[in-house]
Amino acid sequence: MTERSHAARAKSAALRAASVCHHVERHEAPEHVVWKAAHAARVSLQALAVLSESAPDPAADSRCARNAAAAAAQAAQMGQLHDGDSDLAVAACRAALGASRAASAAAGREGLGVDETLNVAADEAEAAAVAAAERAGWMRPGQRLPEMSTGMRSPELMSMLHF
């Protein structure tokens, strides 16, 4: 159960990051905003790839979910930077930061990916981040993970994303 929770949370965060990237690209955001959103999307997708390619390990899997959520929070900051201080953009960014903090707590020393209370809180925070991103127009309900390049995947980077 725990492995599915981490994988689902990582996939959801990667979807949020990729969706924000596509949002700012479609709306012709400044180049630096698009670049940072694209980088965040790649990092989140790389974390998801590491999780899917490795043997199940709750602590390592929760770190991958944490890394995907942190990258999605970076993407959300770019979404807010592009969309301005509208209530929906601010709320989506705050929800993304909350999901990142909750994923970090679940992966942290106290949780190590197996604390059910922390995992449930991280799952709930991720669901709230998705709902806020949908309200902000950054993603659509039921949207699938878009095709995006993860960029160069060096063994060092993959190892770093797992820890």
Secondary structure layout plus pairing:
Blueprint: H1 2-26, H2 31-53, H3 58-83, H4 87-107, H5 116-135, H6 155-162
Helix pairs in contact: 1-2, 1-3, 1-5, 2-3, 2-6, 3-4, 4-5
Question: Which terms summarize this structure?
Answer:
mainly alpha; globular
What is the CA-based Rg, rounded?
A: 15 Å
How far the N terminus sits from the C terminus, by CA atoms, comes to 21 Å
Q: Please trace the helix and strand order, writing H or E for each element.
A: HHHHHH
Question: What is the number of helical segments per DSSP (H or I, 4+ residues)?
Answer: 6
Principal-axis shape equals globular
Count of extended strands: 0
Give structural notes.
With 163 residues, the protein is an all-alpha fold. The chain is 75% helix and 0% strand. The chain has helices at residues 2-26, 31-53, 58-83, 87-107, 116-135, 155-162. Helix 1 (2-26) packs antiparallel against helix 2 and helix 4 (87-107) packs antiparallel against helix 5. The two termini are 21 Å apart. The mean pLDDT is 90.
Please give a quick description of this structure.
The protein is an all-alpha fold and 163 residues long.
